[in-house]
Amino acid sequence: MKDNFSAGSDKYARYRPDYPQQLFDFLLNYVPGRNLAWDCGTGNGQTAAVLSRYFKKVYANDISSKQLSNAIIKDNILYVQEPAEHTTVQPGTVDLVCISQSLHWFDTDTFYAEVKRVAAPEGIIAAWTYNLIQVDQETDALIHDLHFNIIGKYWDKERAHVIAGYSTLPFPFTIIDAPDFTIELNWTPEDLEGYLDTWSGLHKFIQAEKYNPLKQVMEKIHRNWTPGETKPVKFPLQLKAGYIHK
After folding, report:
1. End-to-end Cα distance, the chain
2. Cα 34 from chain centroid?
3. pLDDT tens readout for residues 73-130
4. Which domain CATH number covers 182?
């Protein structure tokens, strides 16, 4: 798994959006056990913190020590620095496996074997990803241009799975039909800039080209979105969920 997120992990913790409660409510309807949840590629523990409200224990792992240093601390969350494909989770113990915005980085064959190893009877797996932010026609066009044209060639190839809503990733489980969800927030343009500054493709552009194009993009955005002004923003979110049959 690539580590694209150790640099700027503090910004990641501050600006990456939280996931909607409706998503977790939907998943919990399919999970009979509440002993152990596993949050794979936990980052700063956004998903683990929510799961900690419903499960006796949450196992949360990530390969980045810097991400984990910004993690949300709860008494029943165990954070471990290790890859998702090879963990110290006990076999047959996990009621719910969650992968939020990170499945595209995993070696899926090896990871899915690990999922089957640790899953409890009737265990569930859920992976989700969110796509490009939606604000308004003018802002969306500028973000689209930044993503696909300005920094397009600097994205890792795995980014294509995110744009495809994970439809291009294998998922060898008994599918649970799931609706699409939406992350809905109220942001200022400063919030948007902070979020865009967490893009790994942007940082690879900066390393190669020796300048940050985000400043010029934000100047254009400010023509339609005044600094400090709050607007509703949306992230379309796609969920893949299934029963783990060994």
Report:
1. 24
2. 23
3. 999 999 999 999 999 999 999 999 999 999 999 999 999 999 999 999 999 999 999 9
4. 3.40.50.150
